[in-house]
Write a structure and sequence with these properties.
This protein is mainly alpha-helical and about 180 residues long. The chain contains 9 helices and 2 strands; from the N terminus they run H-H-H-H-H-H-H-H-E-E-H. It has helices at about 5-40, 45, 50-80, 80-85, 85-120, 125, 130-150, 150-155, 175-180, and strands at about 155-160, 165-170. This is G-protein coupled receptors family 1 profile domain-containing protein.
């Protein structure tokens, strides 16, 4: 491939990331906020454990968009890499992104299990569908994901790249690199 085609494809990728990313970010945050408003304002949903899981999921999905997609838009569209300018953000970005992702997937799974148990014919299964259990399960899993993602805070660091000479945020532990690839 000629260098002009490669640079044209790189520019197209940046433009797609910028414009579709901004659209996805705005639509996602608005949609998440609307979900939260609906689930928090109606009494039927406030008393439903499945709606509680979906509310928490909406909150962490907004967190995903703000930590993952926003920084990608800034890097791709505006050449502003927050992970290379701030050691805190270098460590925090992936930690928060994976914490939100794991919590979001857990909440949708818990909502599905909750709905299954709510429609079960056995009374002892239906008793598991209540707000007390929902709050405890969300707290338990959030604590699990907080602990599970601690290596992102420890092993990500700002290093000067040998190829570009620029400060970059990378994983500095080879075992954790392998875990990320295969785990």
């Amino acid at each position: 491939m000629s260098s002009s085609i490669i640079s044209l494809l790189a520019l197209a990728g940046k433009q797609i990331t910028l414009y579709l990313g901004i659209f996805t970010l705005v639509a996602g945050v608005i949609g998440g906020l609307l979900n939260i408003v609906v689930f928090a304002s109606l009494k039927t949903f406030r008393e439903s454990s499945a709606a509680y899981y979906l509310t928490i999921m909406s909150i962490v999905n907004i967190g995903q968009l703000l930590t993952g997609l926003l920084s990608r838009i800034m890097t791709s569209g505006f050449d502003t890499d927050w992970t290379s300018t701030s050691l805190f953000y270098c460590k925090f970005r992936l930690y928060c992104l994976y914490l939100c992702t794991s919590t979001s997937m857990t909440c949708i799974c818990l909502a599905i299990i909750d709905q299954y148990l709510a429609t079960a014919s056995r009374a002892q299964w239906r008793q598991w569908c209540n707000m007390k259990v929902a709050r405890r399960l969300v707290l338990l899993f959030v604590l699990i994901w907080i602990i599970h993602n601690i290596p992102y805070l420890i092993y990500y660091d700002q290093i000067i790249s040998t190829t570009t000479g620029k400060l970059t945020c990378i994983n500095t532990n080879t075992i954790f690199v392998q875990y990320n690839i295969y785990g």
